[in-house]
Amino acid sequence: MLLPKKTKYSKQHKGRIKGVSKRGNYISFGVFALMALERGRLSSRQIEAARIVINRHVKKTGKLWIRIFPDKPVTKKPAEIRMGKGKGSVHEWVSVIKPGRILYEIDGIDSKAAKIAMKLAQGKLPIKTKFISKEDEFVCAY
């Protein structure tokens, strides 16, 4: 699973997810991509599960790029612990997703196979996503 090697601070505030994606919102490596349509947080487990499904369908013919990285720690206190006594320990790492963000890119396969692979990956993600290609990249609005 993905997680940072080292961070300056081990814990962060929760924060708010406002606005649309200002960077990472265009296809830069592949020909087909999976774009987020709503905001949310993807855990490293969810990112990995979608990656495995895409690779399983594509096999060795295509190339996959993961355009997101889980760099935000989410803390959680153990079950049945009384209130207080500080913030909990880091439970998981998440990636903050805004609408328009490209999550995965793929190249080296035909559009039908790419669409099937991305459809399988959509089932593993908790947010709404859309399959786009390089041709209709600037036409679609999120």
What does it look like?
With 142 residues, the chain is an alpha+beta fold. It has a domain of 85 residues: Ribosomal protein L16/L10 (Aldehyde Oxidoreductase, domain 3, Alpha-Beta Complex), CATH 3.90.1170. The protein is built from two helices and seven strands; from the N terminus they run E-E-H-E-E-E-E-H-E. The strands form two sheets. Strands 3-6-1-7 form a four-stranded antiparallel beta sheet, covered by helices on one side. Helix 1 packs antiparallel against helix 2. The longest helix has 15 residues. The protein is elongated and about 55 Å long. It starts with 31 loop residues before the first strand and ends in a 9-residue tail after the last strand. The mean pLDDT is 93.
Describe what is shown at a glance:
The protein has 2 helices and 7 strands; from the N terminus they run ββαββββαβ. It has 142 residues and is an alpha+beta fold.
Question: What is the strand and helix layout of this fold?
Answer:
Blueprint: E1 32-36, E2 40-43, H1 44-58, E3 63-66, E4 72-76, E5 89-97, E6 102-107, H2 111-122, E7 129-133
Antiparallel strand pairs: 1-6, 1-7, 2-5, 3-6, 4-5
